[in-house]
Amino acid sequence: MSKASAWVMKVDETLYASVSQMELVHIINSPYAINIPKSPEYCQNLIIWNENILPVVDLSQLLINVDSSTIHDVVAVIIYKDSNNNIQYGGISLSCSPDLEHVENSQICDLPENMTALQAISLSCFVSKDGYEVPILDLNKLFSRKYSEDFIRQHC
User: Which H or E element spans position 56?
Assistant: First the structure.
């Protein structure tokens, strides 16, 4: 049986998401965030990390429209390749530090049907060791400007 390592990230009390072990590069506790007026509600904050300006995505705002005008306690710094194959960084707001979990094929499950936005930014889903459905994020889509514009047109 093959295993893969994934960071299980608690976004809020009911929402979890994951990225591969190699995609999460740093955890920032109590980050200093810069609010960007007139930006999409799910991406209103920026942080500076290693001289990089990172957009911080609030998945609870994006997916279930939970009002969270401030950044969470933790930001996961994510690395991914954009559509031009360039390395990029972004942040994801979390309610607490993520846990590393070793995932097997037997843990695969369907993505929640009632969350079309989640399906649009996820590659797959698995059941965590604690019994939560945990979507595996497609980081290129999550941080893509094209996805953001398409999402706003479809859902707002």
Answer: strand 52-57
